[in-house]
Amino acid sequence: MKKALLIVSILFVAVISTACINNIAVQELNNKASEYMQKGDYESAMNRLQASLDLDNTMYETYYNLGVAAIGANKYDTAIEALENGIKIKPDYYDFYYSLGVAQIGYADDIYEKAEVEETADADTENGHINIKRDVAEVNKLSVVELKKSAIKNLKKYLDNTPNASERENVEEMIKQSEEFIEENSKKED
Predict the structure, then answer these.
(1) Which residue of 32, 42, 81, 160 has the fewest C-beta atoms within 10 A of its own C-beta?
(2) C-alpha–C-alpha distance, residues 190 and 186, integer Å
(3) Same domain flag for 82 and 98
């Protein structure tokens, strides 16, 4: 009986030790990621944060930081995935919704800018200008509109739950611009 108790005790200590070492490694990776983010090296920060998540995928802060780093690196699909995973862990951390809205708008704008476009030129002979119209492929336009709608929803959720947000005016402007984009592109469909 004493031998079994000794073995169980040793295993328990080993498990606790491993957990402590894991927590130290996670904290070290997160601290290093923070340093990289402050320097603007978002790729290195993302690598550290992903390694941190590989060790412990229960920390919502790590998902948030990965989302922010991915936004900084213009990797919006990665940001969206990280932020959505973080929301699953801590849905009442409303900064997730702000960052998710920003990532969705960035991704939508990326799709729109990279889309194959058909350009037509109209000459404005009175002013000597040439106006170029861009028609985004239908599939891309639908993706962009859906991303903007989701962004509006997330940004509004952020504002509703963070009434004293310091960036309120900026967020309201992002919402307004997204709504205008949706309205403008809805008119094109009619």
Answers:
(1) 160
(2) 7
(3) no
The helix (H) or strand (E) run that includes residue 23 is helix 2-39
For residue 132, give the H/E element and its range.
strand 129-136
The SS3 assignment for 170 reads helix
Q: Using an 8 Å Cβ cutoff, are 111 and 144 in contact?
A: yes
Between CA 43 and CA 47 the distance in angstroms is: 6
pLDDT in tens, 112-166: 887 755 444 455 555 555 555 555 566 577 789 999 999 999 999 999 999 898 9
Boundary (domain end) residue, out of 37, 65, 87: 87
What are 23-77's pLDDT values in tens digits? Answer: 677 788 787 888 888 899 999 989 988 988 888 899 899 999 999 999 999 999 9
| DSSP-based three-state secondary structure for 122 | strand
Residue labelled with tokens 């920060």: 45
CA neighbor of 61 nearest in space, from 20, 40, 90: 90
Which two structure tokens, joined as six digits, stand for 172? 């309201």
Do 98 and 83 share a domain, yes or no? Answer: no
- Please choose, from the candidates 124, 84, 118, the residue with its C-alpha nearest in 3D space to the C-alpha of residue 100: 84
